[in-house]
Amino acid sequence: MDLSRLEINRRTALLTSAAIAANVINPMRAFAQETPKKGGVFNVHYGAEQRQLNPSIQASTGVYIISGKIQESLVDLDADGKPVGVLAESWESSPDGKTITFKLRKGITWHDGKPFTSEDVAFTAMNMWKKILNYGSTLQLFLTAVDTPDPQTAVFRYERPMPLNLLLRALPDLGYISAKHLYENGDIRQNPVNLAPVGTGPFKFVKYERGQYIIADRNPDYWRPNAPYLDRIVWKVITDRSAAAAQLEAGELQYCPFSSLTISDMARLGKDKRFIVTTKGNEGNARTNTIEFNFRRKELSDIRVRRAIAHAIDVPFFIDNFLGDFAKLGTGPIPSTSTDFYPGTGTPQYPFDKAKAAALLDEAGYKAGAGGARFSLKLLPAPWGEDISLWSTFIQQSLKDVGITVDIVRNDGGGFLKQVYDEHAFDLATGWHQYRNDPAVSTTVWYRSGQPSGAPWTNQWGWEDKQVDQTIDNALTELDPAKRKALYAEFVKEVNTELPVWMPIEQIFVTVITAKVRNHSNTPRWGSSSWHDLWLSA
Amino acid sequence: MRIIGLAGRRLAASIPTLFLILIGVFLLLQLAPGDTVDALMAQMGGGDAATAHELRKFYGLDLSVPAQLANYLWHLVRLDLGFSSIYGKPVATVIMERLPPTILLMTASLSFAFFFGLVFGVIASRAVNKWPDTLISTLGLIFYATPSFWFGLMAIVAFSIYLQWLPAGGFEDIGEVRTGIFRIIDIARHLILPTLTLGLIFLAIYLRIMRASMLEVLNLDYVRTARAKGLDETRVVTQHVLRNALLPMVTLIGLQAGTMLGGSVVVESVFSLPGLGRLAYESVIQRDLNTLLGIVFVSALLVIVVNFVVDLLYARLDPRISAEG
User: Fold this and answer.
1) What pLDDT, on the 0 to 100 scale, is given for residue A500?
2) What pTM does this model have?
């Protein structure tokens, strides 16, 4: 390993981290004395265009960053991460957990003037969430019907108990409503409204020029009083990260969401007074870096080898030198930002210990041969994010030190998913696990057996554990929040012991935003939220 | 009429090539792991296997590869480029939307490179091995050796961030709606930096070629004759030397029209221009076969047309070369 280069890296990381720490405090500064000002255009960096913009049929930040301002969800998360009503005013669950009733807000109209009613909720839930929406189709698997006794009431009927706290934590992302009258005829996927969204939100869709920009204007009939403040939001399509940083500095952009700039640009802008660089407001979009083991490789099916690999990698060193303040040491699949479920650090951990790693490999029967080499592995890194690329090189160099030769095979997005989750043509894979506020949404599928091949980000390791499956299934239908939390702590302990996937780094997306903006980053999923209270100071 | 006949024959001759290129690209993309549904899943951040199956049916990917290819070619002979899976529109519409910025950028930077390449080439050749020649050649070498993305970014830093003279990116200003001449001026302002960035690399090549070709022609016998006739130096250069020295330059334009189409991916990305290069890159990443094949088809047509025009120009510049040849 080239130590002289790392030293320089380390120094810059330390210097910049102080600057970032100073700036992180910034968003919490009290602006109470300022009166909100109406008007202004807010320009947002849009890095990767999606094929469509309807959040009721596609759950991803690339859609929420736009349509989250145009369409609204039944509930969102408040500043403390607790569910708060948006289109729904209140909710209650029957004692058996099989009936959940939502009371809807009165007097809300769609942007085209038609009234919003429970019919829209029932239509969206049954035809979009249950049938098309990624993660929604799994969440609503046992939803049998949505009754609409009156325009302000939607009654969700489930075949099996649905924990209210799971549904309420999933709905901010998976609970966007679309208008029935625009979708009831024809194929939902091909509906042109998907590219010109109509919603109930604070901003009205105006124009989408593919490859260039999207524009939405203030909705004067928005249901929240005095909202929104901004006149217009413009999303500019900029695929080059450095070019986006340049446009931000030139004042042509005000906000680069979800770590859309390079790590070095984020560190540099963190020292610039004109900008705020922070992870606040993205706690609801936590992710962990992974090492995924393919049990079809004889060596990796041995738990001692998997543990040896974990012990061989100095994670704190990697974070300090390459990711700086944008990441922290992870302890398993449930990140520390998830206050409702985080089990603490008491589960099995694998601190850096090269001697122990070597001993474990010897014990497993893989003695070092000529030149210290034991065996070689193929590592497939996912192409999203430079941190994954750095991490895979770090894995390669760390494992070389204990006698495991690693060949890195790089693919683009489609190729990576196909080779890892469908064809299983990997020994080690590394990418991101996205945590979506409740482990049942997109975390337990990484461990539950019986996932059909071709489903990305699921258990495709050739590993099955009856005990883990049982814990996951029990937690899914457990109605008591305290018991659910305990079950997930048990789950983390089990998977950290067996280690089919290792999740040693926690990351939250980084926001880079102009210091002139007020009321930003004030909820855990702010980038995706409606921005009804966002305003620009002079 | 003769020209149209010639054009028709040229086009007919290139049809087999065109089909071979399309089939080649189609098969090549089959070798890439993953299809457009995998790419969509990557973009969405996940989905279950049932969704994936449904989507494959939706995009017509449940058919065998030969069936898909036959399907595509059958549509193509009826001049139907198919449907784009990333854009949800006919490929022809998508390409028509992207073509104007690309052609604008390509024409602007080719003209820039051609014109200044010519001027500097002539100056350098007239002052061979003196300081203007050394200066021009050195600058040319620097432009040629600089990566275009770096050059583009530095131009943004200098002219957009510090001096704030020019916009940092985009095709036109979104803030205000402009029409007529004001819109043209606005678009021109947005294209200055990309044109310079893309043009400078080509400028270096044109400059070298022009210089060498001038030096060669200047030593020919008929130039000596012209001088002996008592013509002044300016007339010798403009009327006798330039015309013959231009031939290699024109050849180069024909060759580089294709490169410009593909080579602008970087410049389009850095300056966020909605061009064909970026569309092609996206289509590969998203495995949008129809769009990619459509772009290959249109680009091939464009290159054929440009080369045809170059052939006509040849004949015009040097009557010894007949357009029939």
Assistant:
1) 96
2) 0.87
Contacts of A234 in chain B (CB under 8 A): 174-175
Contact list in A for residue B97 (CB cut-off 8 A) is 210-211
Q: Is the pLDDT of residue A1 over 80?
A: no
Quickly state the pLDDT bin for B322 (edges 50, 70, 90): low
> In the block, which residue shows the tokens 């024409």?
B107
- Which residue's entry shows tokens 């999606």? A50
Q: Which amino acid is at B151?
A: F
pLDDT tens per residue across span A136-190: 888 999 999 999 999 999 999 999 999 999 999 999 999 999 999 999 999 898 8
User: What DSSP designation does A523 have?
Assistant: S
Q: Is the dihedral of CA B162, B166, B169, B175 positive or negative?
A: positive
Phi (first) and psi of residue B225, to 5 degrees: -60, -45
| Residues β-bridged to residue B325 | none
Per-residue pLDDT averaged across A416-439, rounded? 93
Q: What is the mean pLDDT of residues B143-172?
A: 87
If you measure CA to CA, which chain A residue comes closest to B272? A238
Integer angstrom CA distances of residue A521 from A19, A60, A78, A79, A517: 19, 18, 11, 9, 10
Kindly report the number of other CB atoms within 10 A of residue A183's CB atom.
22
The pLDDT tens digits for A385-410 are: 889 999 999 999 999 999 999 999 99
Is it the case that residue A528 has pLDDT exceeding 50? Answer: yes
Both tokens of A528, joined, read 């995706």
Amino acid identity for residue A485 in this structure: K
Q: Tell me the residue type at B73.
A: L
Give the whole-angstrom CA distance, residue A91 versus residue A89: 7
Q: Which residue has the tokens 């469509």?
A: A52
Give A456 to chain B, closest Cα distance, Å.
6
Contacts of B112 (CB under 8 A, 6+ apart): B195, B196, B199, B203
Set of chain A residues whose Cβ sits within 8 Å of the Cβ of B154: none
* ipTM tops the 0.95 cut: no
A2 touching chain B per CB within 8 A: no
Put simply, whether A457 touches B (Cβ < 8 Å) is yes
Q: Write the secondary structure of A47-60 as one string of H (helix), E (strand) and C (coil).
A: CCCCCCCCCCCCCC
Are A44 and A234 a contacting pair, CB within 8 Å? yes
The predicted pLDDT at position A85 comes to 96
Query: Which of B37, B43, B176 is most worth mutating to test chain A (most A CB atoms within 10 A of its CB)?
Result: B43
pLDDT class of A496 with cuts at 50, 70, 90? very high
Percentage of chain B lying above the pLDDT 70 cut: 98
Tokens 């091939």: give the residue. B300
β strands within A6-142, DSSP E: 41-46, 75-77, 83-85, 88-93, 99-104
What whole-number distance in Å separates Cα of residue A244 and Cα of residue B161? 12
- Mode of pairing for the β-strands spanning A203-209 and A213-218: antiparallel
Residue of A243, A423, A454 lying closest to B272 (CB–CB): A243
